[in-house]
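tool_call: predict_structure(chain=1)
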Amino acid sequence: MTAAHVIGVVGGSGGVGATVLAAALATRAAATGRTVACVDGDVLGGGLDVTFGLEQEPGLRWPDLAAALGRVDGPELLRRLPATDGVAVLSFDRSRPGEPADEAREEVLRALRSCIDVVVLDLPRADAPFGQSLAALADSLVLVSGDGVQALAATSAAAGFLSQAHDQLWLCVRCAGHDDGVAESLAVAVDLPLLATVRHDPRLDADLLHGIPPGSRSRGPLARAAERVLAALLLPAERRAS
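tool_result:
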């Protein structure tokens, strides 16, 4: 039976692109032939389906699964989720707000883990209750930070909070410039291993506007950063499993 590797992605502060990186991780993982799902953990995030250009597509959303009791059939769930570029997406719904019960959340994640290779969780701020419960199910957490002073302060606080409950915590830094020294200094300051520096992708806004999922451009800076993260987190786990 497949046991998916679960990667949680959380922003050290708002506006650092955690959702975009989560989507890019899922897209690049699917591009390698892995079976992948990307799961929305942010009730107030506006819907992960929008990031993937799937907001008009039919399929299950969290409200449809909020009262799921007992065993959920993984392959059937996967078949009924909207998908693009090989990524199945479980999103919240802007027209039907609300969080699923703990039992439903755990059962849905169990079902997905049982039938695919990778689950990417797009998590809200570190102290959000629903995000905490999802983060606890992750095999590894990626904390995304900006490169400014305020971002450093917020990331430091989030790192302290998350490290209390998770021992596989990694850092990605979103940088406007091309100097890796800033990201490396920030990683030292928050005492976390640096996975990748995420450079600005000038085509990203236009891609999102036209429903093109982040990471679809294989030669873009976002895709390259996502591939570095996946190589660091997935390849060692897959070698151990084999």
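agent: The mean pLDDT is 90. Proceeding to next step.
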